[in-house]
Structures are given as C-alpha cells and as structure tokens.
Amino acid sequence: MKIFAIESSHDDTSFAILENNNPIWMKTISQTEVHKVYGGTIPEIASRLHVKNILLLLEEFIKLESIAKNIDYIAYTKEPGLVGSLQIGYIVAQTMSRIYNIPIIGLNHLEGHFYSAFIKKELEFPALCLLVSGGHSQIMLYKNETEFEIIGETQDDAVGEVYDKVARKLELGFPGGPIIDKIWEENKEIYQGHFSIPKLDNEFDFSFSGIKTAVINHYSNLINRNEKIDIKRISTEFQNTIILYLKRNFEKAINKYNPKCVTLSGGVSANKGIRNMILGLHNNVYLPDFEYTTDNAMMIARLAYEKVKK
Ligand code: KG4
Ligand code: ZN
C-alpha cells in the first residue's frame, strides 16, 4: 500500500510517500525564516508562500518518476490549522486525485502528530499522548486505532507559543523553543528553581499564560529596579517550570488510564528536557524521530495508513 500525503496546515509545506509504514520520500519547505522577522506566523503571508512552495514540491515530485507511481491513496491535512494554508494543500490534493483517479482522504493534523511516533513502528492500545506544539498543548487518550479523546488541554496559550513569547521578551530570537532549550541544557545543574505552577479544576488541563506573565513581569521588574539580569537563569527556570508542569499532569493521566504505551509529539517534543522527563514516566515510550517532530507530511501519510490498511 502506497500513500502520498500533503501537509500545509501552518507554515510548513510538506510532501511525503509512505509504503506499508516505510518512509520512502519526504520533502518539507519551512517558512520560519520569513515569519521570524515578525516574531510569529502571519497567516496572509503563510498562504501566499504555500502557493509558491507547493509548486516547488510538485516539480520535485514529478521528477521522482518510479517511486511516485502506483499510489493507492492521496492524504491531506483537512483540519485544524490556518484556513488559507489548509486550502492550498486541499486544492493540490483534489487536483491530483481527479487527474490520476486516486482516492483522497482528508485528515486531522493532531491525529497526525500522534502517529508521528509510530512511523516504522506499530502501536499498542490504550495509548496516551502528550502533544505539545506552537498551536496545541493537550493530552490525548487513544482507546483503539480510531477512537481518541482529548482528556486535557490548554485553556489559553500553547507551550510553543509561550516559549516563543518569552524568548521574544528576553530578546533571544525566534523560534524561542530551541534557543531556550539549549540554554537550559547548559545551565540546568546551576539553576534548579522554577516559577509557580497553576492549578486548574480539571487535573489534566493546562494554563500557560500565567507562567508567561510571571516570567515577563519578573524580567520587567529587574529592569525597572536596575538590578542585574541573568538571562540564563530566567530561561533555565522557565523551562524547569514547563517540565514540572507537563510532568505533573501527564503522570496523573498515566496513573489514571494505565496505558500500554505513551508518546510525546508536536514541535516542542524536540525539547531535550521534556523528552528525558517522559522517558522516566513509563517503560514503553515512543518518541518521534527529530525530522517528524515538527509539521510534516509523513505523519499524515502514517495516519492515512492506519485508517486504510485493513
Ligand atoms: O509543531 P510545530 O512545528 O508548529 C506548529 O505548532 O505549528 O511547533 C513549533 C513550535 C515553536 O513554538 C517552537 O518554539 C517549538 O515548537 N519548539 C521547541 C523546541 N523546538 C521547537 N520548543 C521547546 N524546545 C524545543 N527544543
Ligand atoms: Zn503541528
């Protein structure tokens, strides 16, 4: 079974081919360098760049010749995401489906992130997933291949968004996650403190905006009082807070649902501290390869494979 997939929900344009859960080919064009200037994604610019980038990918795809032959299904990201960006992937997928007479499947981006940890691997149920990205932060419970439930989610900002906003305030650059993670890695033995952790009614829900505000206020207060600013300390203690908070809720979910396996996915899953924390929580942890942590079409192809393989 050969699946061709398109992902275009946010600012990455990606094509991939998966054959029986073996990745054959993937090409992704990122827009990060463009949006960097604005400190976040500008939807209008994202749509226009998807048009340009998807044509570049189509040219590459056409050159593939034999490996792009005999495709059984075309999968694309249907939701959720930026409407203008999703439309571009949808139009191209529909056009290819009509021209080549191949069935088309529209899929959920978040489910795709879940399956990013199961490329080249099979999974066991029930499975619990901690999905942390620039747009989403949630705990997903998969009872079987098709049935999943979001048991906890952020009530405000997503984790990646908070990393990016804190990094912008501290003038560290964009995207903030990898920069703060690097500082944390080099200073975690020195600074072990953290900011306070919120408590919500649903024990699996998250709220990250209070942490963001606490870090930003702390930084502004130091400036106003003309006190010494230790960026390494603030960044490290910020990441300590995120790790502790994610651990607290995810550990509770593991204890309650007793899953056969757990996964971590989404762009923030590249974070070394969060990866290590998860590895300590369960004896059957699946982590996506680094190339599948950020938005990519291989995870959409993997999800499609799960839906159609029987
Ligand atoms: O899933 P993703 O590629 O994009 C969307 O959500 O659309 O995630 C991007 C996010 C950014 O906010 C970025 O700062 C964050 O993932 N990120 C990280 C790390 N690498 C990327 N956050 C924390 N630690 C990292 N190592
Ligand atoms: Zn994503």
UniProtKB/TrEMBL annotation:
Pfam families assigned: TsaD
Enzyme class: transferase
Stretches assigned to the Gcp-like domain: 27-301
Cofactor, how bound (note): Binds 1 Fe(2+) ion per subunit.
GO molecular-function term, one example from the UniProt record: tRNA N(6)-L-threonylcarbamoyladenine synthase activity
Catalytic activity: L-threonylcarbamoyladenylate + adenosine(37) in tRNA = N(6)-L-threonylcarbamoyladenosine(37) in tRNA + AMP + H(+)
Record family assignment: Belongs to the KAE1 / TsaD family.
Protein name per the record: tRNA N6-adenosine threonylcarbamoyltransferase
Organismal lineage: Bacteria, Bacillati, Mycoplasmatota, Mycoplasmoidales, Metamycoplasmataceae
